[in-house]
Amino acid sequence: MRFVVRQESAGWRWELHNEFGEVLCRSATTFKTPDDAINALKAVRSMAPRALVFDPLGTLYEGV
Q: What is the per-residue pLDDT for 41?
């Protein structure tokens, strides 16, 4: 997997791509500069390994 930072008409956005180049997720907002987008994706990367997985009703999926 890899992160991609790209420019759109509204600003810069980060995306996470799988090995086939498909977008798995992207930033919900755009950023003024590529550095701002990179700083945001660094924050996501640093917090994601500890994130738990829940369904919409709040049930925890264990072992994910």
A: 93
